[in-house]
Amino acid sequence: MTGALFRSELGRALRNPLLWLVAVAVHAAAVRTRLSGTAAWAPDLTIETVDATGDALFVAAGVLLGANLAILRERRMPERLAALPGRPADRAVAVAGAFAVLGAVVAALQIAAYLVLRIAQGSVGGHLDGFEVACGVTVAALAAPLGVALGRWVPSLVAAPLVLFALMLLTLLNRNLGGFGGWFLPLVLIRTTDGPARPSELHLVYLVAVGVAGVGVALLRHRSRRRGAVLGVVLTALVLGVSTGAAAQARPGPGPDGRAAEGRAGTDCRRIGAVTYCALRGYTGWIPRWAAAVAPIEAALPASARDGLPTIVQHTAGAPGDTTGSVPVWSVWGRGASERPYRDFLAGDVAARATGLDTGERCDASGQARTVVALWLLGQVTGRAAGPATITVTIATTGSGGRTLVTRATPLGVSYGAGEIEHASRLLTMPEAGRRIRAHWSVLVDPATPIARALPLLGLSGHHHDSPLGPPRCA
């Protein structure tokens, strides 16, 4: 009889417009808003998975309200339901099961569709956490027993909306402000690109335990010979839920400097040409993007200088520490037209290091021949001699939309003037410029070589006048 009731309730649930309105229309609006906000960045599954599972809350809302209204039919039409076969407990199980199955299927399809869409955009980084996806599906399913339990114990039309509002508010506050329940909430939407591993496996166990307890609480409303067994199951589920929730809550979070107290240890390194690229685990899909910003510079260098190119190492948003012999890239990379500042930032670093300029000095490199050479090298990537223009890139993001930014005043990270830009621009139009630069490399990158001495070596005519001194001269 329970099977027939389940099929009947599943058919009713499929025809419920409330569930589809919330699950499809609201979800579509949320995805469209998020895609417009993340279009500038290459897909990072570390962030995207959390965002996608967060959409399961919309499905869960429709499931909770739908299941609650379905079980409240008994109060609206008690005489008609009393004439039907099946006990109230059977009907409670059927309603909970029908909406749980439907909610799980809809949530799984929505999460999968969003992740496939982002993965199809290419250059994917980060980690796809299967436990995280399972949590989103489970949240949509366990909303059904919660709605049924509320209908049995608090048979009021306003009870479910109030509970739903409270859960949504706590989840939102937890995401934006931190605290307010933490891992005892249905979902935790805080996720940083450089944060510690989330306890998603513990949270999944917690959610399943809560779902089992919800079904048991709904059944306890009815007199049954198995009331003691049901009570035992409820208590066991609650103990398991509390213990796993507490264990998840005890996991370490980001340290006071913003870096992970327990981060994603290790890197995967690949050598392309003369350069080694080291990405955090899961981000090797971005290495070809980095190589595209470095390879033209490498090709333009003399063979003797290529061995001195820095290693490209991906860092978190915290202080990168000692970068001797390496150039940092971050936990975010641009996509499409927004990739340009990330490319220019990296290429400028490599061009500066290849010519002996230290981008960390914030010094004035005007009047030095190596500055012109560095701008010419950068032009191999950008197609132009880049002038002093502020470059701002995002180096980390969070699941709540927060961003950590880093800004540089020039692509090379050092100061220079119009004269250096003019000479580099002329070099970029000269077919023999590369041959001349490689032939006189050691002289051109010597910090003591002024531009006036380098002009004949480069095949350039005219004079150079130093720009007014600003920061200290680059050594």
Q: In terms of quaternary structure, what is this?
A: single chain
The SSE order reads HHHHHHHHHHHEEHHEEHHEEHHHH
Helix content: 55-70%
**DSSP strand content:** 5-15%
Number of helices: 19
Average pLDDT for all residues? 84
The rounded distance between the terminal residues' Cα atoms is 86 Å
Shape: elongated
Taken together, the total number of domains comes to 2
- Structural class given helices, strands, pairing? alpha/beta
Work out the radius of gyration: 30 Å
The order of strands across the largest sheet is: 1-2-3-4
Unreliable residue stretches: 254-265
Number of strands: 6
The biggest beta sheet is recorded as: 4 strands, mixed
How would you describe the overall organization of this protein?
The chain has 19 helices and six strands. By secondary structure, it is of the alpha/beta class. The protein has two domains: 2-249, no CATH class; 267-458. The strands form two sheets. It has a four-stranded mixed sheet with strand order 1-2-3-4, covered by helices on one side. Strands 5-6 form a two-stranded antiparallel ribbon. The chain is elongated, with a radius of gyration of 30 Å. The N and C termini lie far apart (86 Å). Residues 254-265 have low confidence and may be disordered.
